[in-house]
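user: can you give me the structure for this one chain? tokens are fine.
assistant: on it. calling the predictor now.
[tool input]
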Amino acid sequence: MNISRRHPLLLGGSIAIAIFSGSVAAQNLGQLKGIMGGSDIGGAASSLGSLSSIMAGSTGNAAGVIEYCVKNNYLSDENAAPVKDQLMGKLSGSEDQPAQNNPDYINGVNGLLTGSGGQSVDLSMAGLKAKAIKKVCNKILDQAKSML
């Protein structure tokens, strides 16, 4: 196959990937709208009226999200670390399966907040305002304190 035949294939593949990525991002934005109760993600910081519906679905996910929030400076380490450490102590871990390998914790550390109803929000998603993420992080920290 010569280069002139490969070029359209590469371009077509790139376009397909871009469309798929865009639809996944749009789906996440739609989920975020539903969870946060707002209709405009750009104004998410001002449309967080229904924060009560944003909750981590597990102890592991709450601990991971807190870790994510501290690493990205949405929460202070001195306030959040003791709560995260207590949550980690509650996760069942062993030598074969340490608590840090808990899938919910790993998702949280990567910025994926997963609720008990199966809905999830990627906090690292482009376009989500820092002020909105900080509010979510504070909400999860408050929830985590009630899990102790």
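assistant: here you go. Strands lie at 112-114, 120-122. Residues 6-27, 34-51 have pLDDT under 50 and may be disordered.
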